[in-house]
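Each record in this resource describes a single protein on a pair of labelled lines. With that in mind, the following record should read easily:

===
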Amino acid sequence: MPAQFSTSWFGQRVFMAWWKGCNRSCRLAVWTLNLLLGIGLCPALVQAECRVETGGTNAAVVFTLHLSETCTEAEREARPVSAKDLMRALAAGRGVDLAGVVIQGDLVLDELPAQKVATVKGLSLEDRRLLEGLNGEEVHVIHGPFVIKHSRVTGRLVNRLKQGFLVITGPVVLMRTRFSGPVDLSRTVFLGLVDGSGATFEQESYFVQDRFTQGAMFSETRFGPHARYHRSMFTGPAIFRDADFPGLTEFLEVVFEQDANFSRAGFHMGTGFSGVQCRARCDFSSTQFDREAFFLFARFDRAVTFASARFQAQSDFSDAAFKEPDDLAQATFTRPPVLIRTARVTSVIPGRQEAGPFSQQVTIVLLIAALGLLVYILKSK
């Protein structure tokens, strides 16, 4: 033991003396060598770990599963969430909180138990009054949050009710989630905030006769071949900024109680806003309409802006009513808009470019040049 201790102590002294004499480049080389050896010997230490979080003590109330951003697609697919398990949790009165997962199977929400509004528990007085105004129809209730974010849903997410309503009492968050199958959340009452920002709907997405009571955000959302919000009501703000609508789009008879923002949105097929009611400010600035756009019988109670919007095909504002001055003249129209029986405060006709001072000066210069050329020709004869 004394000999071994002496040898070890002597080796450490020699190494310390060498390390002190080693310059910066030498030390960097040694550090790099150690790092490479560590990677080769223990690769698991440098790979990001796929972390899994569950509900813990809250599991009895909310079905929770979070897979961290470090999880690979293979790791997510190896731990799929079954739609049947989710439906059982929802039927038991639990909410849903999922992040970074893959959901397999169909979520058919109209199969949840039906009940009378009077038997629904945990509602605020305002929400209960709202539901009591549904003419006594039965409701199917999702209690708590309905969160599916940064995930992928391979099957359908549908509510096929023709009578009654689906009621979701908590917030609905679908941020950055890709829906491979059709989505139909028609006849749904959202009592909490709805956030579908950055979501992708690869197939049809229907939100017909819905009630958005706390506002809805669909910024940078990409819709599929057909998007419908027919006869829905937005009691809170509606934000569709930078949304992309590649297919047929319907906002027919929609009511916006508060501000609605469609700035920089892109509508690439036929688009209908006929019968829409904008009771607050509506923003269509820098919006792109590639095909026909219909605003027949639309009503704008407050200021509405179309500044820098581009209408590449026919636009029709027949029988629309603007209660405050509009700026349609600041939009670009490939074809003059149809304004039959349109009630407007502003007298400027959109689609006609009035000559400004610069264009008038150019016209005068051209006339003088033409006159000078004519005089020169006459004198040369």
Residues 1-11, 41-46, 353-359 have pLDDT under 50 and may be disordered. The first strand starts at residue 52 and ends at 54.
